[in-house]
Design goal:
Blueprint lengths: L4 E14 L2 E14 L3 E5 L6 H8 L7 E6 L2 E2 L8 H9 E4 L11 H11 L4 H14 L15 H13 L5 E5 L7 H18 L2 E6 L2 H4 L4 E6 L2 E7 L7 H12 L2
Protein backbone atom coordinates (compact mmCIF):
# COMPACT_ATOMS: atom_id res chain seq x y z
CA UNK A 1 0.00 0.00 0.00
CA UNK A 2 1.22 3.50 -0.89
CA UNK A 3 1.97 5.32 2.38
CA UNK A 4 1.23 8.82 1.08
CA UNK A 5 -1.07 10.46 3.62
CA UNK A 6 -4.33 11.81 2.23
CA UNK A 7 -6.01 12.99 5.44
CA UNK A 8 -5.13 13.33 9.10
CA UNK A 9 -7.58 13.94 11.92
CA UNK A 10 -5.80 15.26 14.99
CA UNK A 11 -7.43 15.28 18.44
CA UNK A 12 -10.95 15.50 17.02
CA UNK A 13 -13.60 15.98 19.67
CA UNK A 14 -17.35 16.34 19.42
CA UNK A 15 -19.60 17.20 22.34
CA UNK A 16 -23.35 17.56 21.99
CA UNK A 17 -25.14 19.78 24.51
CA UNK A 18 -28.80 19.82 25.49
CA UNK A 19 -29.22 22.30 28.28
CA UNK A 20 -27.01 21.10 31.13
CA UNK A 21 -26.65 17.63 29.59
CA UNK A 22 -23.47 17.09 27.61
CA UNK A 23 -22.58 13.98 25.63
CA UNK A 24 -19.05 13.35 24.37
CA UNK A 25 -19.58 11.64 21.03
CA UNK A 26 -15.88 11.67 20.09
CA UNK A 27 -12.93 11.91 22.44
CA UNK A 28 -9.59 13.09 21.01
CA UNK A 29 -9.62 10.94 17.87
CA UNK A 30 -6.35 10.66 15.96
CA UNK A 31 -6.74 9.12 12.51
CA UNK A 32 -4.56 8.81 9.42
CA UNK A 33 -5.92 7.80 6.01
CA UNK A 34 -3.48 6.73 3.30
CA UNK A 35 -3.70 7.05 -0.45
CA UNK A 36 -5.22 4.02 -2.13
CA UNK A 37 -6.44 2.30 1.03
CA UNK A 38 -9.94 1.25 2.02
CA UNK A 39 -10.56 1.87 5.69
CA UNK A 40 -13.63 0.49 7.45
CA UNK A 41 -14.90 2.03 10.67
CA UNK A 42 -17.00 -0.27 12.84
CA UNK A 43 -18.79 0.07 16.14
CA UNK A 44 -22.13 -0.30 17.85
CA UNK A 45 -24.93 2.19 17.36
CA UNK A 46 -24.00 5.40 19.18
CA UNK A 47 -20.30 4.56 19.30
CA UNK A 48 -19.32 7.67 17.31
CA UNK A 49 -18.50 6.15 13.93
CA UNK A 50 -21.01 8.20 11.92
CA UNK A 51 -20.10 11.32 13.87
CA UNK A 52 -16.48 10.82 12.85
CA UNK A 53 -17.47 10.44 9.20
CA UNK A 54 -19.57 13.60 9.40
CA UNK A 55 -16.68 15.59 10.86
CA UNK A 56 -14.27 14.37 8.17
CA UNK A 57 -16.82 15.29 5.51
CA UNK A 58 -17.61 18.73 7.00
CA UNK A 59 -21.24 17.73 7.51
CA UNK A 60 -20.85 18.64 11.18
CA UNK A 61 -18.50 20.88 13.15
CA UNK A 62 -15.99 19.48 15.65
CA UNK A 63 -15.86 20.84 19.17
CA UNK A 64 -12.09 20.77 18.88
CA UNK A 65 -9.34 19.30 16.74
CA UNK A 66 -7.71 19.67 13.34
CA UNK A 67 -8.13 18.23 9.85
CA UNK A 68 -5.17 18.09 7.48
CA UNK A 69 -5.48 17.20 3.80
CA UNK A 70 -2.24 16.22 2.07
CA UNK A 71 -0.26 17.75 4.95
CA UNK A 72 -2.13 21.06 4.76
CA UNK A 73 -4.27 22.25 7.67
CA UNK A 74 -7.78 23.10 6.48
CA UNK A 75 -8.95 26.11 8.51
CA UNK A 76 -12.67 26.70 9.06
CA UNK A 77 -13.41 23.69 6.87
CA UNK A 78 -16.73 23.09 8.66
CA UNK A 79 -18.02 26.66 8.22
CA UNK A 80 -19.70 28.04 5.12
CA UNK A 81 -18.69 28.93 2.48
CA UNK A 82 -15.50 26.96 3.25
CA UNK A 83 -17.37 23.71 3.97
CA UNK A 84 -18.92 23.60 0.50
CA UNK A 85 -15.56 24.34 -1.10
CA UNK A 86 -13.85 21.68 1.04
CA UNK A 87 -16.39 19.02 0.09
CA UNK A 88 -16.24 20.02 -3.58
CA UNK A 89 -12.44 19.79 -3.74
CA UNK A 90 -11.65 16.89 -1.44
CA UNK A 91 -14.61 14.65 -0.63
CA UNK A 92 -16.95 12.29 -2.47
CA UNK A 93 -19.96 10.86 -0.65
CA UNK A 94 -21.92 7.61 -0.94
CA UNK A 95 -25.01 7.30 1.24
CA UNK A 96 -27.25 4.41 2.18
CA UNK A 97 -30.24 6.12 0.53
CA UNK A 98 -28.41 6.98 -2.74
CA UNK A 99 -29.53 10.68 -2.69
CA UNK A 100 -29.98 10.86 -6.45
CA UNK A 101 -32.03 13.62 -8.05
CA UNK A 102 -35.18 11.82 -9.18
CA UNK A 103 -36.04 14.19 -12.03
CA UNK A 104 -32.64 13.84 -13.68
CA UNK A 105 -31.45 10.93 -15.81
CA UNK A 106 -28.42 8.82 -14.92
CA UNK A 107 -26.14 10.90 -17.14
CA UNK A 108 -27.61 14.16 -15.82
CA UNK A 109 -27.03 13.07 -12.20
CA UNK A 110 -23.40 12.36 -13.08
CA UNK A 111 -22.95 15.57 -15.07
CA UNK A 112 -24.22 17.87 -12.32
CA UNK A 113 -21.07 17.92 -10.14
CA UNK A 114 -18.97 18.70 -13.22
CA UNK A 115 -21.36 21.46 -14.30
CA UNK A 116 -21.04 23.01 -10.84
CA UNK A 117 -17.25 22.92 -11.32
CA UNK A 118 -17.66 24.80 -14.64
CA UNK A 119 -16.20 21.98 -16.72
CA UNK A 120 -16.61 22.31 -20.47
CA UNK A 121 -19.20 20.22 -22.31
CA UNK A 122 -16.62 17.99 -24.01
CA UNK A 123 -15.02 17.06 -20.68
CA UNK A 124 -18.42 16.46 -19.09
CA UNK A 125 -19.50 14.13 -21.89
CA UNK A 126 -16.23 12.17 -21.76
CA UNK A 127 -16.18 11.83 -17.97
CA UNK A 128 -19.85 10.85 -17.73
CA UNK A 129 -19.34 8.14 -20.35
CA UNK A 130 -16.20 6.90 -18.62
CA UNK A 131 -17.83 6.53 -15.20
CA UNK A 132 -21.02 4.99 -16.55
CA UNK A 133 -18.83 2.31 -18.11
CA UNK A 134 -16.76 1.89 -14.92
CA UNK A 135 -19.84 1.04 -12.85
CA UNK A 136 -21.42 -1.13 -15.54
CA UNK A 137 -24.43 1.00 -16.44
CA UNK A 138 -24.00 1.23 -20.19
CA UNK A 139 -27.40 1.60 -21.83
CA UNK A 140 -28.94 3.28 -18.75
CA UNK A 141 -27.78 6.82 -19.57
CA UNK A 142 -31.29 8.21 -20.24
CA UNK A 143 -33.05 6.35 -17.43
CA UNK A 144 -34.32 8.15 -14.31
CA UNK A 145 -33.42 6.71 -10.89
CA UNK A 146 -36.93 5.51 -9.99
CA UNK A 147 -36.78 3.05 -12.88
CA UNK A 148 -33.54 1.50 -11.60
CA UNK A 149 -33.04 -1.22 -9.00
CA UNK A 150 -31.46 -0.33 -5.67
CA UNK A 151 -28.14 -1.77 -6.76
CA UNK A 152 -28.21 0.22 -10.00
CA UNK A 153 -29.03 3.41 -8.12
CA UNK A 154 -26.08 2.83 -5.82
CA UNK A 155 -23.85 2.36 -8.88
CA UNK A 156 -24.97 5.78 -10.10
CA UNK A 157 -24.23 7.24 -6.66
CA UNK A 158 -20.74 5.70 -6.68
CA UNK A 159 -20.00 7.11 -10.13
CA UNK A 160 -21.30 10.54 -9.12
CA UNK A 161 -19.14 10.52 -5.99
CA UNK A 162 -15.99 9.69 -7.95
CA UNK A 163 -16.50 11.75 -11.10
CA UNK A 164 -14.82 14.85 -9.62
CA UNK A 165 -11.75 12.78 -8.73
CA UNK A 166 -11.84 13.53 -4.98
CA UNK A 167 -8.84 12.55 -2.84
CA UNK A 168 -11.18 10.84 -0.37
CA UNK A 169 -14.43 8.90 -0.77
CA UNK A 170 -16.69 8.59 2.29
CA UNK A 171 -19.33 5.84 2.34
CA UNK A 172 -21.95 5.64 5.09
CA UNK A 173 -23.48 2.14 5.21
CA UNK A 174 -23.39 1.93 1.38
CA UNK A 175 -25.04 -1.51 1.27
CA UNK A 176 -27.53 -0.96 4.09
CA UNK A 177 -30.58 -1.04 1.78
CA UNK A 178 -29.42 -3.91 -0.42
CA UNK A 179 -29.81 -7.67 -0.28
CA UNK A 180 -26.78 -9.92 0.21
CA UNK A 181 -26.07 -10.64 -3.46
CA UNK A 182 -26.46 -7.01 -4.54
CA UNK A 183 -24.30 -5.91 -1.59
CA UNK A 184 -21.54 -8.21 -2.79
CA UNK A 185 -21.79 -6.75 -6.29
CA UNK A 186 -21.59 -3.18 -5.00
CA UNK A 187 -18.66 -3.96 -2.70
CA UNK A 188 -16.79 -5.60 -5.56
CA UNK A 189 -17.37 -2.52 -7.70
CA UNK A 190 -16.08 -0.25 -4.92
CA UNK A 191 -13.04 -2.49 -4.43
CA UNK A 192 -12.32 -2.60 -8.17
CA UNK A 193 -12.55 1.20 -8.40
CA UNK A 194 -10.32 1.59 -5.36
CA UNK A 195 -7.62 -0.43 -7.09
CA UNK A 196 -8.13 0.99 -10.58
CA UNK A 197 -8.15 4.64 -9.46
CA UNK A 198 -5.82 4.29 -6.44
CA UNK A 199 -8.72 5.76 -4.51
CA UNK A 200 -8.77 6.34 -0.75
CA UNK A 201 -12.07 5.20 0.77
CA UNK A 202 -13.56 5.28 4.26
CA UNK A 203 -16.59 3.06 4.88
CA UNK A 204 -18.69 3.26 8.03
CA UNK A 205 -20.48 -0.04 8.57
CA UNK A 206 -21.99 -2.31 11.19
CA UNK A 207 -21.62 -5.33 8.87
CA UNK A 208 -18.47 -7.46 9.33
CA UNK A 209 -18.90 -8.80 5.79
CA UNK A 210 -18.47 -5.26 4.43
CA UNK A 211 -15.38 -4.82 6.58
CA UNK A 212 -13.71 -7.83 4.98
CA UNK A 213 -13.31 -5.79 1.80
CA UNK A 214 -11.25 -3.16 3.64
CA UNK A 215 -7.47 -3.05 3.98
CA UNK A 216 -7.77 -1.81 7.55
CA UNK A 217 -10.59 -1.85 10.12
CA UNK A 218 -10.91 0.55 13.05
CA UNK A 219 -13.24 -0.25 15.94
CA UNK A 220 -14.84 2.65 17.84
CA UNK A 221 -16.44 2.34 21.27
CA UNK A 222 -17.77 5.20 23.40
CA UNK A 223 -16.16 7.80 21.17
CA UNK A 224 -12.67 6.29 21.15
CA UNK A 225 -10.71 4.10 18.74
CA UNK A 226 -10.19 0.96 20.80
CA UNK A 227 -8.88 -1.57 18.28
CA UNK A 228 -7.47 -1.94 14.79
CA UNK A 229 -7.23 -4.82 12.34
CA UNK A 230 -4.89 -4.70 9.36
CA UNK A 231 -5.63 -7.31 6.73
CA UNK A 232 -2.62 -9.50 6.07
CA UNK A 233 -4.13 -11.78 3.46
CA UNK A 234 -5.97 -10.96 0.26
CA UNK A 235 -9.14 -12.71 1.39
CA UNK A 236 -11.10 -11.14 4.25
CA UNK A 237 -11.24 -12.89 7.62
CA UNK A 238 -14.77 -12.36 8.87
CA UNK A 239 -14.26 -14.52 11.98
CA UNK A 240 -11.35 -12.39 13.17
CA UNK A 241 -13.26 -9.19 12.50
CA UNK A 242 -16.28 -10.51 14.41
CA UNK A 243 -14.05 -11.52 17.33
CA UNK A 244 -12.35 -8.11 17.46
CA UNK A 245 -15.69 -6.29 17.19
CA UNK A 246 -17.12 -8.23 20.14
CA UNK A 247 -14.01 -7.58 22.22
CA UNK A 248 -14.05 -3.87 21.31
CA UNK A 249 -17.64 -3.51 22.46
CA UNK A 250 -16.69 -4.89 25.87
CA UNK A 251 -14.12 -2.13 26.46
Amino acid sequence: MNKEIVLEAIKLRKTYSNGELKVEALKNIDLTIYKGEMLAIMGASGSGKSTLLNLIGALDAPSDGTIKIKNRIISNYHKEPYATQYRSEYIGFIFQDYNLLKDLTVEENLALPLILMNKDSKTIKEEVGKYIDLVGLGGKEKVRPYKLSGGQQQRVAIARALITNPPLLLADEPTGNLDYQTSEEILNIIKDLQEALDQSIVIVTHDPQVATFADRVLFIHNGKIVNEYVKKAKAGDIDKILHMLKNSMRC
